[in-house]
Amino acid sequence: MSLTLHYHPLASFCWKVLIGLYENETPFTPVIVDLGDPASRGAFQALWPLGKMPVLEDAGRGEVVAESSVILDYLDAHHSGPVRFTPQEDAWRVRLWDRIFDLHLHQAMQKVVTDRIRPQGQGDPFGVSEARSQIRAAYGVIEKGLAGRDWLSAGGFGLAECAAAPALYYADRVEPLGAERPLAAAYLERLKARPSFARVLAEAEPYFKYFPVD
What we know:
By secondary structure, the chain is α+β, with helices and mostly antiparallel strands. About 55% of the residues lie in helices and about 10% in strands.
């Protein structure tokens, strides 16, 4: 098969692309990148010097595609399936939700998580407090946006959901949604019940022991 995904099963931005691939049952070869292994890290950085996962390699078209949203755009354009991640109708709105989840929820969540693995005495409590405030603000926007809707992408499950699933799943673990956000909590449950995301979670299960907790 022409597609190879370089990723790690625990990496949240990798989940975003895996969900898209599984939604359309797009065939691909998985290559797990272990950044702690010099050989694996070296091979990956030879492919993508910036060293950030995921990266999709398309041997058939001679392309190396990085960044999760861009990869899903690429799949829409060149390896499309029944699910259109960003339909033409209201494409700007779908991309806005994608940015809200990635920039205002996902990255804030990662700030909280990465602070947990910093060496003792080198934490950033102020930065973590700001990140938690940003997560709560994003929750408010998401709760409001879900009024009267099952999915945030135009026409149904799409790019917004691929972005929402990892962001909400991990954010809820570090800053629980709570009873005051019933629509967002129900949305997360719908995402977890989606076969594509359920598969991602099942594949990540053996690695959850490495997720840092307080």
